[in-house]
Structures are given as structure tokens and as C-alpha cells.
Write a structure and sequence with these properties.
Blueprint (H helix, E strand, L loop, with lengths): L2 E2 L5 H12 L13 E6 L4 E6 L2 E7 L19 E9 L7 E4 L2 E6 L14 E10 L18 E4 L15 E3 L1 H10 L5 E5 L13 E5 L4 H12 L3 E5 L1 H4 L4 H9 L3 E2 L11 E6 L8 H9 L3 E3 H11 L1 E6 L4 H14 L5 E3 L5 H4 L7 E2 L5 E5 L14 E4 L9 H14 L3 E5 L12 E4 L6 E2 L1 E5 L4 E5 L2 E5 L4 H16 L8 H5 L9 E6 L2 E6 L4 H12 L4 E7 L3 H18 L5 E4 L15 H9 L5 E3 L3 H11 L4 E7 L5 H18 L1
Parallel strand pairs: 2-11, 9-10, 12-13, 12-15, 13-14, 15-16, 17-20, 17-21, 18-20, 21-22, 22-23, 23-24, 29-33, 30-31, 30-33, 31-32
Antiparallel strand pairs: 1-4, 2-3, 3-4, 5-8, 5-11, 6-7, 6-8, 8-9, 18-19, 25-26, 26-27, 28-29
Helix pairs in contact: 1-10, 8-11, 13-14, 14-15, 16-17
Family: Belongs to the YkuD family.
GO molecular function, one term: ATP binding
Keywords: ATP-binding, Cell cycle, Cell division, Cell shape, Cell wall biogenesis/degradation, Ligase, Nucleotide-binding, Peptidoglycan synthesis, Transferase
Length: 657
């Protein structure tokens, strides 16, 4: 049955996004044509666009063998085509065609036998001429020569799934509607996402190089929790560090092996790596030498995202917090969700888990989708959440392109913040925020030093974490939970129990009236949010920052200078440690001391910390009642221990006094 797609429908925007992204393909038109059919392989739909508007959409079936243009592959060819011929204009519904000619027979219903052996070409045919050499045109790849059609089918019960033998099947009523709308020469885009098949995660042992990393460990845990066989290695474990985390992995059945290549044995089905794992790492070299598949962690996450009714949270700031809030809401509302995230959830740590992964019993999965390494574009979630767009690891226009891809790949609904620079993604989306632009809007906001209160519609929320940025985070989580059917009233109580995220403005303790807080802030916006939250509850802020990585610090250097100079007041202090270096081939050609000098030149009281021991003593001497010591930085797992050492020094000073 023909289904009219309204312009506000997110699927309309998805078709336009897919077409826009495909303009970079060979054989693409110079701009989007006025008349275009987009066959969405991932969603198994065909959308007819007229003058940039989605007029109609129909379920289809592309090939069960997947996407490809090779002869005899029984695959559906990707890319740009044009309609070569329209066949069957006067044929009765159900007319059977063979070799593009009517046979005189008519299909009257029913389907039997093998899907391809009994695959009838019915009612109408639209033949396709490929426009991309070596992909869908030319010797061995030619769509026209391969008899690739859009046609009616006797397998209408299978539409919406990839079950054809190469052609694009439609219901017989729908192929007539499409036939009447199109002309010879109209363009057709068969849009498929570029994904690589990976081994079944339950097919053998998957080995994770860099297992101790937050993103890697979460996926490894989830694979183990859902029945997979998992091992891993990490330099920190080889050095005898992080023993408690190693014990937690082993309790989950994850074997921790030396990072010397020995984990790549005959039973190893795949090696999983992150962007930080270089080819010189012994596990990587061994896998390459032995022909073991090497899979990026984002490909593993993309697999799990596709297998679940997933909620993927992205944005420059707040991903871990919002992911944790959504998980808390869904769990408290009885939805039994799973989670894969980069931040540690205290409620999971209280259950003896590392805290960044959990496998629930439902099909709901909440994931943190990272834009920093470009892996965001791999995910096809049910619900996509775009929090904000700021300058962090990449330039904003580069991140915006990834957000557009996520929008195109989102299956059900998109949740987007109400900032103006997100308007480009907001068509058909559910927006959240504090302005009148938001659909899920926070009103009557009260910001306190320890908690916040606000109202959404008729429901009042109390959030046990401070800061306006956390109100925005909560609104994002509320909107995402609303998108999967949770009533606002069922969300309020779970949010009152939100216990935060590890290293997200996490209080380590208080001594001598001085609070010590550990925070993951590492870009300008996050640093500003942390300082502003600290000022809600302190007379002075004693800020400590350790930049992470020479590349990111070089990229954000001027942002750091501007932010610290703007946010820290006359009585506040800043100490900056040397740039954290985790190893590898990064060029170390400057020092944090140079950044400190530029900040100090703007009038901020800033010092370079020559060592952590020196800094602990310096803070203990400087701090006084009513101060808040704010330790900030990312990637270095020892920062929390460093914050505790500052607290211990303050406590020792109190004992001496």
C-alpha cells in the first residue's frame, strides 16, 4: 500500500541526507536532481523525492546476498543509476514477465518454493542503467546487462527484508505507483552504508589490544556478558598496574594475557583495536602476520548497535553523563536496558563491575558514540541523540558532517539539542533544551550548589548533580527515554537516584573545609562548565589541569588560554601539569609551561607544576577553608589517585594543626 511521507517525517530527511552524501560518488550528478528515487538498503525502503520533498515511501527487498555489482553474484548493485526503460504500461496487475517480456500469465497471489527459483517478475519493470564505471557499469559490473530491475514481486510477505536475488522488489500496488510517477532518465540511487562484515562475536575468541582503555573495556565486557569468548592485553597490566580492574575482568571470564603477541593463537577469531593501537604493538603485528582479522572497536560497537533497539548518544560534551542518565531512567522505569559507555557508572560499580558496561534482558541498548576518531559514522541506532557541537578533537564542520551521517542512519527518531548551530540536523527531530525552540523544555530551573530542580510539562525533576550543563544533559536523557515510550512521570524518581559518572565532577572528599573534585574536563567547554559548577559551591577555585596528548593540546591551545583566562577570577588559581603522553609516535615539541605563560600574561594567577609531588605540597600550602580544588584532565587513569593524594595532604595538614 502506498504510504505518503510527510515532510516532517525523519525518514524524509534520511533519504535527502543519503542522497546528499552520495554526491561524492563517481557518476553522481553535480547537485541533487529534482526527481530522484532513493533505495535505502539499510532500512529496506524506497523513497520518491520530487523537488527536494519526499512524496512517498515504500518497503522493498534488495538482495539477500548483499550489495555488489559483480556478475553472477546475485547482489544488488550500489550507487547512481538512471531509469533506462519503463516496461508494462498497460499490463494488468500481476502480469508475469520473463526477459522483460510478458508471458501471458497472471499471478493471483501466493508464493512457494525457493525464493529465487520461484521469484516472479510482476506487474511493471523499471530497468536500471548504471552510471558508475567498475561499480554498476562496464564489463562484469553492468546493471543493465545483469538484468537488474525495480519490479513487482510474488514475495510481498518478505518486503522490508533483504531477500531478493539482486533486483529491487516492491509490492505490486507500489510498483504501479512508482511507475506512474517516474520517467525514463530519472535518477535512482541505491544507497548502502560502507560497513565491513565481521566474524560472529560468538564464533571464537576475540582478543582486545589495549583492554584497559575505557572504550575498549566496555565492548569487551559486553561481548563477554552476552556469551562471547574474550581475552585482552594492556601495557598497564604488563607493568603490574591496575590490579583491581584486572581482577574484575577475570571475574567476568576475560583472560588477561601479556601484550607480546601471544594472545594471537590459532583459536583467535579476531583482534580488536582502537585508533590508539599502532601497528608496532606486538598483538597487531602478530595478527597481521597470521592473517587474523583486525577489527576496530567501533566496528564491534556498530555490530551491537545494529543488533539492538539502540540509543546512541553523541556530541562534543556530556556523552558519558547523558548515556548514564538514560540508562538510569530506563532501568528505574523497569525497561532492563544494556549499556556500553566510556564513563564509569557508580551504580554498576556498586555491583562489583568496572562500571562502563552492562547486559540487560531487553533489546534496549544505550551507547556512547564517539566523534573524536570518526567512528561515529559507523553506527545505525534506533534513536540518535546529538547533544551539542563544539570545538574539541576536530574542527566543527568535520564533526557536523559526521552528525549528518548519524542522522541519515538513525532508524526511528532523532533527539537534538536546541542550540542554533544544531538547526541543520533538527528537521523532524525531537529537540531538547531550555529555550522556546525545545520540544522537551526545562522550565522553572533552580540551580543549587549540590543539586538542580526543573520542570518538563507537568513533571518536576530533582537532579542530584549541580550545574546548568547537567540540567541540559538531563533534558537530553528525558527526551531520549520519551522517544522509546517512557512517560515523563516514570522518569522523575529514577533521576533522583542518578549517582553521577566517574570523574565527572566527582567529589573525592573534604578536609579543612576544602573540597577536592576529580573531573574529566579536557576541552574548553567542559573546562568552563566544571569551573562554573565549582563556583556555585566555593569561595575560590584552585584549578589543576593536565592536558592530554600533544596533538589534541596543540589543536586546542588557544582555546585553553582563552577559557582559563575568562573563567578564573582574581582570587582563583591555576596549576598546569606537563602534557600527558601515553606513548606512541606523537611529536613532543612543546611544553605545557609555554601555555601557562600565555595564560599568566592575561592576568590569571597561573603556574606550571614541575612535578605532582611539588604540586601536592603547593596546593596544601595555598588552600584554605571554603576553597574547591578542581583536578581536570582525560585519559590518564592515575589522575584520580593524584586527587586523592591532594586530599590526603590536606587531611595531614589538618591533623598537624
Amino acid at each position: 500500500m502506498r504510504r505518503v511521507t510527510q515532510p516532517s517525517d525523519p525518514k524524509s530527511h534520511r533519504a535527502l541526507d543519503l542522497a546528499q552524501a552520495a554526491l561524492s560518488r563517481p557518476g553522481a550528478p553535480p547537485a541533487l536532481p529534482d526527481r530522484l528515487l532513493v533505495v535505502d538498503v539499510e532500512r529496506q525502503t524506497a523513497t520518491w523525492l520530487d523537488a527536494g520533498r519526499a512524496v512517498a515511501a515504500w518497503p522493498v527487498s534488495t538482495a539477500r546476498n548483499g550489495i555488489g555489482g559483480e556478475e553472477n553474484s546475485f547482489k544488488t548493485p550500489p550507487g547512481w543509476h538512471r531509469i533506462h526503460a519503463l516496461i508494462g504500461a498497460d499490463a494488468a496487475p500481476g502480469t508475469v514477465f520473463v526477459s522483460r517480456e510478458p508471458t501471458g500469465e497472471t499471478w493471483t497471489g501466493g508464493a512457494s518454493g525457493d525464493i529465487c527459483g520461484d521469484d516472479l517478475i510482476l506487474t511493471r519493470i523499471l530497468t536500471l542503467e548504471g552510471l558508475e564505471d567498475g561499480i554498476n557499469r562496464g564489463p562484469g559490473y553492468d546493471s543493465l546487462e545483469r538484468y537488474i530491475y525495480l519490479h513487482g514481486t510474488n514475495h510481498e510477505d518478505l518486503l522490508g527484508r533483504p531477500m531478493s536475488c539482486g533486483c529491487v522488489r516492491l509490492a505490486n500496488t507500489d510498483i504501479r505507483a512508482l511507475f506512474d510517477a517516474t520517467h525514463e532518465g530519472d535518477l535512482v540511487l541505491i544507497a548502502s552504508t560502507e560497513t565491513r562484515a565481521i566474524p560472529d562475536p560468538k564464533s571464537g575468541r576475540f582478543h582486545y589490544a589495549g583492554l584497559g582503555g575505557s572504550g575498549m573495556s566496555a565492548i569487551a565486557q559486553f561481548q563477554a556478558m552476552t556469551g562471547g569468548t574474550v581475552s585482552g592485553s594492556d601495557r598497564a597490566f604488563d607493568h603490574g598496574e591496575r590490579g583491581a580492574l584486572r581482577a574484575q575482568f577475570e571475574a567476568l571470564g576475560i583472560a588477561v594475557l601479556p601484550q607480546d603477541g601471544s594472545g594471537i593463537g590459532e583459536d583467535c577469531a579476531a583482534l580488536v583495536v582502537s585508533t590508539a593501537v599502532e601497528e608496532q604493538v606486538p598483538d597487531y603485528a602478530a595478527a597481521k602476520a597470521k592473517g587474523v582479522p583486525i577489527i576496530h572497536r567501533s566496528e564491534m560497537l556498530a555490530y551491537f548497535v545494529a543488533e539492538h533497539r539502540s540509543i546512541a548518544v553523541t556530541g562534543t560534551s556530556g556523552k558519558s553523563t547523558v548515556t548514564g542518565m538514560i540508562f538510569e531512567i530506563l532501568r528505574g522505569a523497569g525497561r532492563d536496558p544494556s549499556v556500553i559507555t566510556g564513563g564509569d557508572l557508580p551504580l554498576l560499580q556498586a555491583e562489583g563491575l568496572p562500571g562502563n558496561a552492562y547486559a540487560g534482558g531487553s533489546d534496549l541498548l544505550v551507547v556512547e558514540a564517539d566523534e573524536s576518531d570518526g567512528s561515529l559514522v559507523r553506527y545505525a541506532p534506533s534513536i540518535g541523540v546529538i547533544l551539542n557541537l563544539q570545538r574539541d578533537h576536530k574542527e566543527m564542520d568535520e564533526v557536523a558532517a559526521m552528525f549528518a551521517t548519524l542522522r541519515a542512519r538513525t532508524r526511528e527518531a532523532l533527539v537534538v539539542g536546541d542550540q542554533e548551530n544544531l538547526d541543520q540536523f533538527a528537521g523532524g527531530a525531537l529537540r531538547f533544551g531550555l529555550t522556546a525552540r525545545a520540544d522537551v523544555r526545562g522550565e522553572d530551573v533552580e540551580l543549587g550548589p549540590e543539586q538542580s530542580r526543573f520542570r518538563v510539562a507537568d513533571t518536576v525533576f530533582t537532579l542530584p548533580v549541580a550545574g546548568e550543563h547537567n540540567v541540559a544533559n538531563a533534558l537530553a536523557a528525558i527526551a531520549a527515554a520519551h522517544a522509546v515510550g517512557v512517560p515523563f512521570a516514570d522518569m522523575a524518581e529514577p533521576l533522583t537516584r542518578f549517582s553521577g559518572i566517574g570523574r565527572r565532577f566527582q567529589t573525592i572528599g573534604t578536609a579543612r573545609g576544602i573540597e577536592v573534585v576529580d573531573d574529566f574536563a579536557h576541552n574548553a567547554e567542559k573546562i568552563a562548565a566544571a569551573i562554573r559548577t565549582a563556583k556555585l559551591r566555593a569561595k575560590r577555585v584552585l584549578a589543576i589541569y593536565q592536558p592530554h596528548g600533544y596533538g589534541p593540546t596543540r589543536f586546542l591551545r588557544q582555546d585553553f588560554i582563552t577559557t582559563f583566562a575568562r573563567e578564573l577570577g582574581e582570587g582563583d588559581r591555576l596549576w598546569m601539569l606537563e602534557i600527558f603522553y601515553a606513548g606512541g609516535t606523537a611529536t613532543r615539541d612543546f611544553s605545557a609551561a609555554e601555555i601557562v605563560n600565555e595564560i599568566a600574561a592575561r592576568g590569571t594567577r597561573a603556574e606550571f607544576a614541575t612535578s605532582r609531588d611539588w604540586l601536592v605540597k603547593r596546593v596544601a600550602e595555598e588552600a584554605r577553608d571554603g576553597d574547591l580544588v578542581l583536578v581536570m584532565g582525560a585519559r590518564d587513569p592515575s589522575l584520580t589517585a593524584f586527587a586523592r593524594s591532594i586530599l590526603a595532604a590536606l587531611e595531614a595538614g589538618a591533623a598537624e594543626a
